[in-house]
Amino acid sequence: MRFMMLMLPAGYAKATPDTRPDPDAVAKMMVYNKSLQQAGVLLALDGLHPASAGARVTTVDGKVKVNDGPFAEAKEVVGGYWMIDVSSRDEAIAWASRCPLAAGDTIEIRQVFEMADFPAEVQKAADGFQDPRQTAA
Amino acid sequence: MATDIHRTVEAVWRIESPRLIAGLARMVRDVGLAEELAQDALVAALERWPESGVPDNPGAWLMTTAKHRAIDQLRRKKLIERKHEALAHEPEFAPADGGLELEAMLDDDIGDDLLRLIFTACHPVLSAESRAALTLRLMGGLTTDEIARAFLVPEPTIAQRIVRAKRTLADKQIPFEVPRGEERDERLASVLEVLYLIFNEGYAATSGDDWMRPELCSEAMRLGRVLTGLAPQEPEVLGLLALMEIQASRLRARTTSNGEPILLPDQDRSRWDPLLIRRGLAALERIEKLGGTTGPYALQAAIAACHARARTADATDWPRIAALYAALALVMPSPVVELNRAVAVAMASGPEAGLALVDALADEPLLRNYHLLPSVRGDLLSRLQRHDEARDEFERAASLARNTRERSFLQQRAAACADAARSQA
Predict the structure, then answer these.
(1) What is the C-alpha separation between B358 and B380, in angstroms, rounded?
(2) Where is the YCII-related domain (chain A) (predicted)?
(3) A117 touches chain B (CB under 8 A)
(4) In this predicted complex, what is the ipTM?
(5) CATH code for residues B112-203
(6) Domain spans in chain B, listed from the N-terminal domain onward
(7) Do A43 and B279 touch (CB under 8 A)?
(8) pLDDT at position A17, please?
(9) What is the predicted pLDDT for the residue at B351?
(10) Which among A13, A61, B91, B283 is least buried, having the fewest CB atoms inside 10 angstroms?
(11) Cβ(B139)–Cβ(B117) under 8 Å?
(12) Among partner residues B10, B222, B257, which is closest to A90 by beta-carbon distance?
């Protein structure tokens, strides 16, 4: 089963757009990343620019609204993610527990939906897409 | 609480056991004994951790515990003093802080040990099914019960298979090593064969009601990724991984919610897993850089990639697939490859051209009971509007298929041909 480990670095919500990670922290993280890779569980990973360089797009009363970062209301923002393939939620937790976290950093673990996780009616709704005659070529 | 700890210990075991067993096997030179020692350490963890809590570096804890037991064992067996002292002077694992750095330092060593472990588990002295079971047990950290369920075999059968395999390795005094030169290539081929067997057992289960057992696919891919890390310069290791990942990208699109198979041209390609496809295509690029595009797994991966790149079934580059099958037939001549080539040729140049190749395989003894031969022939005949003959072929294919889902699918195709023949008449 696939899990996304979302890294919520301490203070990243307030980080300025030019904030870059500390080389020592990166070196430690690379050791960790390598251990995920060598165990064959790592599918993908990425680090994200600070939220202050990003934007939030929402709709208000049916109209698209764009807010540039930083986002005053956000306490925690995502700083990066790992996509891993493991045999259980406990294994995902065990992997997250090995991450070299700085004080206040948080990793949130979220399982990726598989078709079998959906109730029958949702699966059925998705089933229509399987008929090639119903999809534009 | 106790069950929480129990599950945590199981998760730690799954992560640590291959490295644990590999490191111990280097010390005691016996994978069977190494596994028992590792199991003892697991039992000790299950006893101690509920009270003491999970240590900060659980892997190091397990290794230290197992090593002490190994030294006790060796002492009891009165092995020669020299060996005993060498073991006693091996550096102990550092405490929790700095554990990661130490792990990194040990990585090279443990990498060699893991490679030795997988080569030993896949030794050709063992039957293919024993190799698969032992590999899942030693390299995958799976319990005998899990392996038994995955292979739809009673647990005692798997347990016995593993015990016998370990005994064979000990009796034949198979050294715990990675062979060199030509023997290395042969043995690597055996390792790849075992991983692909595990994958295929999951991808297209040969018997039973479930058309696929995805956990086995996941496990084979996980082991494939481990192996690409251990032997990064081997294009065929990358080739097998790319092949498995691209094939697995279609797992979600291969069956309806009722479990009925959906054939490749009818699959909804938006359901293919883009992450696995991207990984597979990236591996193929690395194979090109390594200059290994002519290996059998690399070629099969390249064929799978042709499908992955096509946004619709009609956009498939069939001439390229036919050419890749022709190249594959050179390095891995087999009637099954020839049958696949026939399908590709039929798609590239029309059903008659394909049928000519299929008919050349009619007397092939290896395909006598292979349901895909009549199934392919039936498909080509029906496209040539020869529905009566097509029906006979599909009926024959259905009688040969061992998987219940596949059988009912072939019976449906036979019935459709019968209908078409009636409306033709």
Answers:
(1) 9
(2) 9-115
(3) no
(4) 0.85
(5) 1.10.10.10
(6) 1-96, 112-203, 369-425
(7) yes
(8) 94
(9) 96
(10) A61
(11) yes
(12) B10
